[in-house]
Every structure is written in C-alpha cells, then in structure tokens.
Design goal:
The protein has 142 residues and is α+β, with helices and mostly antiparallel strands. It folds into two domains: 59 residues, no CATH class; 70 residues, Beta Barrel (Beta-clip). Helix content is 21%, strand content 35%. The strands form three sheets. Strands 2, 5, 7, 8, 9 and 11 form a six-stranded mixed β-sheet that branches. The radius of gyration is 17 Å and the shape is globular.
C-alpha cells in the first residue's frame, strides 16, 4: 500500500485496481489482469491473506467446482467484544461449549496460531463497535 508498491506499479497501468476495502484484517487488495490472466493481490500478513482468499476467492472456486457455499450460522457470543468502527471485522473463533461463538486470539493479522485453532469467522458489521455476551452474530465456517 506504499507509494512505491510494485503491485500498484504493475497492475494500474494495465487497468487493474489497487486499494483498500473496509475490512479487518485484510484491507489492502488488488485485482487486474496480465496477458489475459486474472490477477488477485492480497495483503502481506498471513492471516489477512488467508481471510481475503476465504472471503473473495473461495466462494467462486467452490461454485465452479459444484460445491455448496461455506456453511454460515447465527450464534450467540460467549463473551463481550469490541470492534474497530468503520470496518467489517472478521474475528477468528470456534464453537464453545453450549454452542456459542468464542473469539480465538486477538484481531491482529499476524496471529497465525489463532487462525489455525479456529473453525469459524465471527462477523462484526462496520457500524458495530461493541457487542455483549449473548448477542447473536453471523459466523462463516472455515
């Protein structure tokens, strides 16, 4: 996302787009084509890259392969949480005892072990900054 970003310098002259989407983790994104081949650019942090793939590319690949969409479910939160205003937050989580969703690790895009221990993403809308325990949230299973 810097001023001298090689992905930007390569894709934008070819009509590609390099910018940011209002999500965390995974804001920086890029799309375009080179010699007729689609190009998709993800953020450099490992969790951001994996979540970007899961949210933007995997649904298309699943559809092409004839697979059903990833499972989604509305679950109550096991504990209260806070979120960044203005960005849709995708927190790593798992199903806790009793069927609630609990956050695994923090929101950092470098927390690979938390992603590995997760089975779902807890979706917090961009206009929500806090949720109480028991609040029902959308989840996407990984």
């Amino acid at each position: 996302m810097g001023a001298y970003e090689v992905v930007r310098e390569t894709l934008e002259p070819l009509g590609g787009w390099v910018g940011s989407v209002a999500m965390q983790p995974g804001g920086p994104q890029a799309t375009g084509a080179h010699r007729g081949m689609p190009v998709i650019g993800f953020p450099g942090n490992p969790v951001s890259a994996q979540l970007s793939f899961e949210l933007f590319v995997a649904p298309t690949l699943r559809a092409i392969a004839g697979l059903p969409p990833a499972r989604t479910e509305r679950l109550p939160l096991a504990a209260p949480l806070t979120s960044v205003p203005g960005k849709r937050q995708f927190l790593r989580g798992r199903r806790a005892d009793g069927g609630s969703a609990e956050v695994v690790g923090g929101p950092g895009s470098h927390l690979v072990a938390a992603l590995a221990a997760s089975e779902l993403l807890i979706v917090v809308p961009e206009d929500v900054t806090s949720l109480d325990a028991g609040a029902v949230v959308d989840t996407v299973f990984l």
